[in-house]
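Quick entry, no commentary yet.
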Amino acid sequence: MKNIKLASRETEQHTIVKVSGVEVGRDFVVIAGPCSVESEKQTL
């Protein structure tokens, strides 16, 4: 997997991705949600 340098631990540079103004990879981020969805109503 040496061709995926930004996602690899072989580089000292961290991968930073901005999502709605939050920098994932720099800020402390918690992503949570249901492990599964059983109906269309739950999805909406």
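second:
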Amino acid sequence: MITVVEQALEREVAGLLIAALNIEGRDADAVDPQAPLFGAHDVGWGLDSIDALEVALAIQQKYGVELRADEEATRRAFTSIRTLAEYVAAHRAPV
């Protein structure tokens, strides 16, 4: 079961992704947090490696979390909004 705090972080990460990539027509409150980030647009976000770099930079700037391309944990984090939010929650400095 996803908590309210986890849902809020998922929406925040979705909003960050939308802003970082200048995606029009997507509402952070309405996205499926389990939709794949890579692959076809009809089943997910349709991101590519350049998009991932931009998202990683935005996450580092906002949360202080570094996502390294050469780490398996980073590749797993970029599965969906949910996994990306979980990674951020686990690696950001406590507030």
